[in-house]
Structure formats: C-alpha cells, structure tokens
Amino acid sequence: MNRIKKTFNQLKKNNKKALGIFLTAGDPDFENSLSLIKKLPQNGVDFVEIGMPFSDPMADGPSIQLSSQRALKSGMNVINCLSLVEKFRKLNTHTPIILMGYYNPIYKFGKKKFIELCLNCGVDGLIIVDLPPEEDEEFYVEAEKNKLSIIRLVTPTTDEKRLNKILFNATGFVYYVSITGITGTQAPNIENVSIKLAKIKSVTDLPVVIGFGIRSPSQALSMANISDGIVVGSAVVDLIKSSLDKDDNPTKNTLNSCLDFIGKVSKSIKHN
Fold it and tell me: Which residues are catalytic?
C-alpha cells in the first residue's frame, strides 16, 4: 500500500481529516525550503505538496507566481526540487509527498528520467495542472505503470460527463478546486462546495480534498467538515513573503511564522 492510501486510511480510521500544505520548492531558497518541509509533519501536516517552480504558472495567483519567481531566482530547478524530496526522505519515510506543477519543465527534463528520479527520491504522487485526461498517453500512463499516484483536479465548472472522464484514471485522491479562477484570490462558498462534493463522492471511492482559497483556521474547519481533507497554499506562501527582508532574503521569522499558522490550522481541523 502506498503512503497516500495508507495515510488516508489511517486518518479515516481515527475519524480525522487530512491537512496538506503547499510550498514552492526553493522559496525563498533551498535550505530554508528544506527546513520548513522537514518540520511540517511535527506541526500536524499529513501530506506535503511541493510546487515545481515554473515561469508561467497559469493556474496560480500572484502569491504563488511570485514564489516561483523567487525560487527560480535562487537556482531552483527539477533536479534540486527532487533533491529536496530525497533529503526529506532520509528523515521521514511515511509522510506522502506530492509534486504539483506544469508539464513544460518535465517534458524538457525528459519524462522517463523524471519518473525514475521521482521513484528513487520518494515521491508518491503527481498533480500536473495542464495535462487533461485527453493527454494521458503523453505522461500519465507511464507514471501509473510505475505506481505514481495521478491526482486529478475537479473544478466548480466540471459537469457530470467530464467528471466521469477525469476520474477514470484518477488515483490517490481527488483534488477539488473550490473556486473558479486562480489560486489564492477568492474565498470558497461552503454551500456550493458541499453540493459539488456530494456529486463527486457519489461516483468515486477516492478521498476528496479541497484546495484553492483556504486562508484561515476557520475556513479550514468549514471545508474539512465536508471533505476528507484540505490543502492550504497561498496563505503559507504569503507568510513566507511577508517574513523576508527587502531583498527577499529569509529572516529569523520566516520558519516560525509559517509553522505557527500551520499549527493553528491543524488544531482547528483536528481538535487537538
């Protein structure tokens, strides 16, 4: 059983909801990014989404766009991103790691080499934002052969026919995008999200996790109550940005501000 399935099974058994945190690899630099990722599990995080920085992240709002720019400026690339996972795995063998990003860097790097290194470094799943089901032969088929979970995105505008197509090859969990638009720019509507999640749940046994737009412990609790878990991204990325000095260098507050917020979110959804 892979780490993603094992984690969600254990959480369900304990009547708990999953907390995922998104961070851009290399933001603000390699060492601080690694230090933060290492500390996430002990602060209540059940799985980690590591964003592979890209120069044109079209699904992301200003916060994550800027984090990609900072990461690229600091020298982050595909190899260094996988190195983050490899170093994390030396200390932690149970927390799922999911890489989230766009296909261009993978294509340029070489998809077979990328998949091989993902497996060697300890990656559990992939979210490739700009590869729809129609492009499965391009990448997903090869990834699935190698037991990498392929996590699909479902949006508020996904109709029933499209939903069935998206879920056909989905593994790991379903990622529900709770807003129409880009990351970190709107707040989700609990009633609308609840209706959509009920439809998704009626056609899949996979866990359904909500992301995009969750920015506070209270929002986290509302979304966790109607799902199997949540992902918080832009709010954490904004805390990183606000902690940096005028030259975008990390300060002594960079890790602490993020971990304090993440701990509050975890406590809100897990009641402990």
Answer: 49, 60
- Neighbour-count burial for 6-25, b at 16+ CB within 10 Å, e otherwise: ebbeebeeeebbbbbbbbbb
Phi/psi for 170 (5° steps) reads: -70, 145
State both tokens at 81: 């991103």
What would the pLDDT profile of 239-254 be if each residue is shown by its tens digit? Answer: 999 999 999 999 999 9
> Which helix (H) or strand (E) element contains residue 267?
helix 253-270
Q: Which two tokens stand for residue 180?
A: 């129409």
Cβ burial of 50 (10 Å; 0-12, 13-18, 19+) is: buried
Q: Angle, nearest 10°, between helix axes 190-201 and 160-167?
A: 60
How confident is the model over 66-100, as pLDDT tens digits? Answer: 999 999 999 999 999 999 999 999 999 999 999 99
DSSP 122-140: T--EEEETT--GGGGGGTH
Q: Are 269 and 19 in contact (CB under 8 A)?
A: yes
How large is the greatest C-alpha to C-alpha distance in the chain, in angstroms? 50
Tokens of 205: 């046994």
Two structure tokens written together for 198: 């009920």
User: What is the distance between the alpha carbons of residues 191 and 171, in angstroms, rounded to a whole number?
Assistant: 26
Report the C-alpha gap between 78 and 64 in whole angstroms.
17
Q: pTM, whole model, 2 decimals? A: 0.94
β partners of residue 126: 99, 150
